[in-house]
Amino acid sequence: MNETARRPRRPSSGPVRHGRLRSSSPVATALKGLAVVAAVALVSVGTITAYAVSSVATQFTSNAVDISNGEAAPAPPPLLSAFEGGFNMLVIGTDNDPNQGDSFGERDATLNDVNILLHVSADHKNAVVVSFPRDLVISHPDCQDPETGETFDAMSAQPLNDAYARGGIACVANTVSNLTGLSIQYAAATSFDGVIEMTNAVGGVPVCLTAPIFDSDSGLDLPAGTSVIEGQMALAFLRNRHGVGDGSDLSRIGSQQQYLSSLMRTMKSADTLSDLGKLYGLAQAAASNIKPSQSLASPDAMVSLALTLKDVDLNNIVFVQYPSEEDPDDVNKVVPAQYLADAMFAKIVADQPFTLGADSTTTGSTVVEDPAAPAEPAPDATAAPDATAAPTTDPSAPEVIEGLKGQTAAQQTCANPNDN
C-alpha cells in the first residue's frame, strides 16, 4: 500500500499507527453500533420540552465543528417541523476520547473506528443506515482540520479509520462523501462512555442470544434467550468480537444491528416516548458525549431531525453493511465489493428504496419470530388453487439487492456464539 502523503510541516511522514493494542483486540472496534445509539439519542431531543432542548443545546453548540469543506451550509431547518426533503447524517465513533482514561487501552492517535451513515428519503418514508468497516481500504481526499488549520494531502489506499487523525469529523465526512458520492449535511462524533450513559437513560435494551456467551476480552457474560442490557454490559455486547459468529469484525456487526434495531423499537414504544425522564436523560447523555457539526448544533435542527424520523416505519429502515471483500494484499483488511456498492448507492443517490434478499443477516445473527406477533392461519391443504388469482408479486415493492448483509429495524435477531 502507499504510505500517507503529508505536507512538509507534518512531523510524521508515515501512516497513522494503531498504538500498542493488538490488531485482534476487541477494544479497537468496540464502538460499532454506538454511532446509531447517538443518532437515536439526538432524535429523542425533539420529543421533550423546549426548556430541555435549550439546556442541552448549549452544550452542543460549544463543541460544534465546521464540516462544510467550503460548500454552502444546509438551509436552516423549519421551526418545529420536519426537514423538507431528505438528508444524510454521519455518526462517528472514536476510540480515544481524552475523558475515558486508559481503561479501554492506549493509543497514539484517535481513530474513527465507527462510521455509520444515515440517509432519510425525501418523502420521509424510508431510511438506510450504512455501517462502514473500520478496516475498509479506500482512497482518502485532501483534508484540512477546521479546528487547527492543518492540511493533509490525499492518500491512495489506507483504512477508513485513519481519517479522523487527518482532520477530525470534517475529514471523516469528506472521506465518506468521496467514497459514496453523497453530500453529508450533518455529522456527530462520540466515544465509549456515551453508550453506557445513553443505554442507562433509556432503561436498557433487550437483546437475544441463541446460546450463552462468555467473552473475557469484552466482559460479555449473558445466558441464552433474551436479556435487557444497559451500562457496561451493553458496551460489552457491542464490543464483543471473538464470542460471536466467526469471530470477525464483520460478524460482530450482526449483533450490533440486533442491538440497534431493538433500541429503535424501544425508542418508538409508548413506554419510552411517554416517559419525560427517559427522554430528558437521553438528551443530556447525548449533549455530554457528542461532538456535532455546526449544522446540527441548534435546537431547531435537533427537533427537525426528530420530527423527520419519528414516523418512518420500522420495516422501511434498513441496516446494511457496506459491501466488502478480503483485501488481496492483507487478510486483515477489506476492500469495497464495488459492484454491490455501486448498486446500493445508485439507489440511495436516486432516493429509491431497496430491500435485502433472503438470509441476508451476517454469520453472527439469526432472524427469530416476534413472539408477540399473531400466528398466521395454516393453509387449507384441501382447497383447490385459484387459477384466476392475480400474481402475488407487488410491482411497487422495493427492489431486492441480493448479496447485501443486514436487516430491517423491524426484524428481531439473536446473536450466535462463536463455536470455533
TrEMBL record:
Keywords: Membrane, Transmembrane, Transmembrane helix. The chain crosses the membrane at residues 30-53. Residues 369-399 have a biased composition (Low complexity). Residues 112-269 form the Cell envelope-related transcriptional attenuator domain. Residues 408-420 have a biased composition (Polar residues). Residues 1-23, 361-420 are annotated as: Disordered. NCBIfam families: lytR_cpsA_psr (TIGR00350). Belongs to the LytR/CpsA/Psr (LCP) family. PANTHER family: POLYISOPRENYL-TEICHOIC ACID--PEPTIDOGLYCAN TEICHOIC ACID TRANSFERASE TAGU (PTHR33392). This is LCP family protein required for cell wall assembly. It comes from Herbiconiux flava.
